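S1.2 Input.
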Amino acid sequence: MPKSIIQYRNDFIEYCEVEKGLSPTTGKNYTRFLEQFFIWLRKNSLENLEPQNLTEDHIWQYRVWLSRLRNQTRKTSLGLNPSTQSRYLIALRGLLGYFHEKSIPCLPTEKIKLPKERRERQVKFLQLEQLEALLTSPNEKTDTGLRDRAILETLFSTGLRVAELVALDRKHLAGAKGKNDFEMSVIGKGNYPRTVYFSERALYWVKKYLETRTDDDKALFTRFKGPNDDSLRLSVRGVELLVQKYAKISGIPVLATPHTLRHSFATDLLNNGVDIRMVQEFLGHRHIGTTQVYTHVTSKRLRDIHKQFHGGNKL
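S1.3 Output.
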């Protein structure tokens, strides 16, 4: 019996995890991004639309709808920015690719065009004095403040993604006993392994936090509120909220997120002369093009150095 596009949802997610080898987190993102297309289908009474009946006009109307969709994160009347629209369209393109892989008639994937960026992607990062204000803003005399200081220091020292951070267990730090700094392997986005490094400062605060722990939960970073019959592991949202909290407390003029600390980590390395290929390894990027988003951040510094030291400027 023919199936509608929406009915292929679970089949596609399983395909991504099993045949494409994508991580569960990526699978969840695809589910979330595809849900917008399914919402659009339902709003237009197309919930029974089968893959072979999907037309270029459907795609165009969906793109128009996306461009006008209110940005729930920014709480503005403006539509979604092009990069966010692209995520939704890439997920849809992936679904069409699945149909072709399974010999299910459908539009070619190239019929889904991605919106052009209206401007160069802006990377938000913190200057060292702003970082210091943020990292030192928790009250370490409280259990919550001590945990939060350890989290902020870890994010900046390692460049971990927030999902990678909350997935850490106490056992991962077992080898750090008696050491002033520490390195460990993590499996990141796309099951791509890399080594991350805890500075002496970051490790100090993590150890100090662990000394206060009286529970037996395996998670490295735990919450203090919520149901007692569930894992105490701190959630991604919990880390996002605490970073926003301390950004306000420290008075930095940036809407900081955990990823802002990752950006700051990468920018700090580049500003100190680390080769971009090495930064790529530190961040766990599969492709160098992903890392190159940071190069324009350091271009002004390079111009200043060139102006100061290049002989041609002194002739």
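S1.4 Remarks. The chain has two domains: 6-111, 128-306.
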